[in-house]
Specification:
- Chains A, B: Pfam families: TPP_enzyme_C, TPP_enzyme_N.
- Chains A, B: InterPro entries: THDP-binding, Thiamin_PyroP_enz_TPP-bd_dom, TPP-bd_CS, TPP_enz, TPP_enzyme_TPP-bd.
- Chains A, B: Keywords: Thiamine pyrophosphate.
- Two copies of one chain form a homodimer.
- By secondary structure, the first copy, chain A, is α/β, with parallel strands linked by helices.
- Chain A folds into three domains: about 160 residues, Thiamin diphosphate (ThDP)-binding fold, Pyr/PP domains (Rossmann fold, 3-Layer(aba) Sandwich), CATH 3.40.50.970; about 130 residues, 3-Layer(aba) Sandwich (Rossmann fold), CATH 3.40.50; about 180 residues, Rossmann fold.
- Chain A is built from 22 helices and 18 strands.
- A seven-stranded mixed β-sheet of chain A has the order 9-14-13-15-16-18-17, with helices on both faces. A six-stranded parallel β-sheet of chain A has the order 2-1-3-4-6-5, sandwiched between helices.
- In chain A, helix 20 links the parallel strand 17 and strand 18.
- The longest helix of chain A has 17 residues.
- The termini of chain A are far apart.
Chain lengths: ~550, ~550
């Protein structure tokens, strides 16, 4: 068998059964080998950022990596932003990047570039160029072991065309599943002492600590000790909703996060980093841990978060305690004439089906989503882990392929959606059960907020034009139809509710374009910096009220 | 003034007056500074690949760089493919990549990544992270001097947010225009001797040697010496058409390029590299220079190609010779019921307006374009210099902004168009005179050819599905309308001619979606490898005939 065939067999034997592809000439032997392996599903994407974002979404839900198939350095470049999201989310991805034949590379043909250099940005843990057909399958297994270790990583295997097409390929048996260690006894003992000390303790849960089993253990610990549970601001995958223990997400706005963390004397990290602000702002601190608050680590991303939390619960003697769970509570049907982002979020909470996967890249429009879905049926939430926008539509593809029987809801701002809008075509081609909601507010709304926050308030018309998407207005209904996805444009609460009810009960992909005003507009936007700055000095109940009004 | 203001003034003083942008929070001070400089035009793009491809197209036509404004490593990653095309085309581009504040970077926030590493892929000549507000403008001038040197380069200046927002910025006076040396006397003497020896000589012209002045000198030399003039396969900018000396482009298919070069004893490179095949193929040579053919260099990309050609013409005493120029000759109006890619190309030759800029990324559908436009009115042709598809629509934006009074025609395959389809929105927003023609053949047609050429003929249904774009079919008319560009779908030769006539005479952007069958389909496709392989052994007239039928 040739290299590509050996690689294909090795991957499928190891359980890698989905490949998100955007191939070119140098990948044609891998493409030809697809027909040798009925277990390998190849999902064609029209742009590499869709393929990498789909692999990210797939692995978040399947708990194993998909492969991507990319075309040289430029294909990898196009896929970089969503690989960045995967890297920051500790999500396993196996990139197979085709390259020129080994003897062709020194000739500096048109597509020649330094692929390894680009790859190191997202694959610090594994970048290798295969050099021999006979050892290609072992290269793939090595890459796979890095990818699916703890933490999950993006691993990049560069595959020269001649290594792929030459005979002498040999499949390699599937490697053992990696096992992550749990927290050590010393850590455990000191945390037990801390939790029994009566000090004010918060937990910051991230990564694997946001799945239900881990949340149950954490909720037991919190119920027993009075500790507060926070989730990192952008969870890779957070299980939540009715019947699941609740956890409060850290706010995106540093000013609000400071309010959330105020007064805690100890912060315990569980598969998470000490929180920092998303961006830096003139004259403001980037570190969000309050002065005097001591940071501890129950377990690092290299360790097993769920098992570590269970051990802690056992050590506290609360592993059989019935933990508090979120009550079932849906918001009412939104009413009125005018559609707003808040009403869209309310309608989603009103209708969210059982066992849904919600991919949230709604940015400012999604501010009220957590509140309205807190008591909706149990669902998984996937978010923008690395801040590289253009994640939601591709993530939704991967999630729908990993979980074909679960409804997927992708919530996306208009600006974000345009980075990887080509994803709609793959949804149509594969007949995926994805309902995409576009919040079309004709602006990069979050940048209007940020423009003030960085102290550049006196923006003139040219600056403001850089944040405006209204001339011409985007018509996502037409865009969706151009890629074979049925779409509806709505501008009333009732219209949105009807469209959501209908699309959730109809198989295949659908898009709902919700025409909404910016969530933080006019006076609210102008006042925001002032309000936020004064939160610190306000009486607690007032600050809490404003926080609820303004924050996720 | 702050760093961003000093930077803005320095750039505009140096003649950099266009910036293609896709900003985020870390770029907000640069955005705010736009209103301080009326000379700086900021062109918003919805995806970074559009911004970088527009900067490429702009510089090809303006002969000076534009700036790009990109958001951290992920923004640069999204822009990488079209920067690759610029790098390979020796096109000057100045990237300004915003970064976290210097003190924020070590905190590894969500968007933190190693930007310099990514940048080195496309900016080997200049990557620098600014560290001080006071020296930022000098950093920009240093970057600019590398970018607009000879050869043109992509230079990347990474701009941390605090370096941008801090006070203490100082503008720097515009640097002197770089001057490139001409070829030396020894080279000149040996080439004069060669050209007077009666040997069979071909010139391979690339880069700056494909502008009219250089072509006139080359044509004088050729007319005098009997040398043959070739252009590199993917010219950065080739001036051609009626009244311009003709040059034969090297073929994309190595098999055809070998036929073109057969029998030449000497190949003289002028701002070009010795030709190699685009990809490697099993059992075939990648170098295209025939055995025994000696390669010479008149001037390297570091030297002034036009001046070097003039010197050579002077040394031969032919610098006053009237060179042969292409006669004016348009094809007739295409007829018949069925629209084909060939008929679209014919219609373009029939109607091409005076002084047009043609951006060609039509891949297989454009095979007949060179033939049908050889005698059309004088025009500039921009092509896919680096092979990274998704170049034409962004290039067209840049060309139209550099040359607002020239009609721009972007010819794009359906597969290629989808990589940077967001470009249509910027065309509408800026009201650019661009007519986009999409060859919609519902396939990655070139890959059907390549699949056979790499020896993977026995492709099964899964492999073939990877090259198929028909399920669902893309509707580019809907996509264009979704982004504010008026569009027409045509399926007859007469329909296409009418649409082209109308759109060329109506200001603003338009899109024509031509529904065509694959150019190399069915029997033709099946026979192609065999035909190409036998070309070498065929009698010259037959080979010439087949070459004309199959090649650009």
């Amino acid at each position: 068998m040739n290299g590509a065939q050996a690689l294909m067999q090795t991957l499928t034997d190891a359980g890698i059964e989905v490949c998100f592809t955007n191939p070119g000439t140098s990948e044609m032997h891998f493409v030809a080998a697809l027909d040798d392996q009925p277990r390998m599903r190849a999902v064609l994407c029209l742009f590499e950022g869709v393929a990498t974002g789909a692999a990210d979404g797939y692995a978040r839900m399947a708990d194993k990596p998909a492969a991507t198939l990319l075309h040289l350095g430029c294909g990898l470049g196009n896929g970089l932003a969503n690989l960045h999201n995967a890297r920051k989310g500790k999500v396993p991805v196996l990139n197979i990047v085709g390259d020129h034949a080994t003897y062709h590379a020194p000739l500096d043909a048109q597509l020649q570039s330094d692929i390894e250099t680009v790859a190191r940005n997202v694959s610090p843990g594994f970048v290798r160029t295969a050099t021999q057909t006979g050892t290609l399958a072992q290269d793939a297994v090595d890459a796979l072991q890095v990818a699916r270790g703890r933490p999950g990583q993006v691993a990049t295997l560069i595959l020269p065309a001649d290594v792929s097409w030459s005979d002498g390929g040999q499949a390699v048996a599937p490697p053992p599943a990696p096992v992550a260690p749990v927290c050590d006894d010393t850590t455990l003992e000191s945390l037990v002492a801390l939790l029994q000390s009566g000090a004010r303790v918060a937990f910051l849960l991230g990564g694997q600590a946001l799945r239900e089993a881990a949340l149950v253990s954490a909720a037991r610990i919190a119920a027993h000790s009075g500790a507060k549970l926070f989730s990192e601001v952008f969870p890779t995958r957070l299980t939540r909703g009715a019947g699941v223990p609740a956890v409060e997400r850290m706010a995106y706005l540093a000013e609000l996060a400071s309010v959330q963390l105020r007064g805690f004397e100890h912060l315990v990290l569980v598969d998470a980093k000490a929180p920092v602000s998303f961006f830096a702002y003139p004259g403001k601190k980037s570190e969000l841990v309050p002065p005097g608050c001591q940071v501890h680590t129950l377990c690092s991303p290299e360790q097993d978060a769920a098992a570590s939390l269970t051990r802690l619960a056992q050590a506290l003697g609360v592993d059989a305690l019935t933990p508090p769970r979120s009550p079932a509570l849906r918001p009412s049907r939104p009413r009125g004439r005018k559609l707003t982002a808040e009403k869209v979020c309310k309608a989603i909470g009103h209708l969210l089906p059982e066992n849904a996967i919600v991919v949230d890249e709604a940015i400012t429009s999604g501010l009220m989503l957590p509140k309205f879905t807190a008591g909706a049926p149990r669902h998984d939430l996937l978010t923008l882990t690395g801040g590289a926008i253009g994640q939601a539509l591709p993530n939704a593809i991967g999630a729908a392929i990993a979980c074909p029987n679960r409804p997927v809801l992708a919530l996306v701002g208009d600006g974000s959606a345009m980075y990887t809008i080509q994803a709609l075509w793959t949804m149509a081609r594969e007949g995926l059960n994805v309902v995409t909601v576009i919040f079309n507010n004709a602006a990069y709304s979050v940048l209007n907020v940020e423009l003030s926050r960085v102290g550049a308030q006196e923006a003139g018309p040219k600056a403001k034009a850089q944040l405006d998407l209204s001339a011409p207005g985007l018509n996502f209904t037409a865009l969706a139809q151009g890629m074979g996805v049925p779409a509806t444009r709505v501008q009333s609460p009732e219209g949105f509710v009807q469209a959501l009810e209908r699309t959730l009960s109809t198989p295949g992909p659908h898009l709902i374009e919700a025409l909404v005003p910016p969530s933080l507009s006019g006076l609210k936007l102008k006042l925001l910096p002032t309000v936020l700055e004064s939160l610190e000095g306000l009486p607690a109940p007032v600050a809490r009220f404003l926080k609820r009004k303004l924050a996720p």
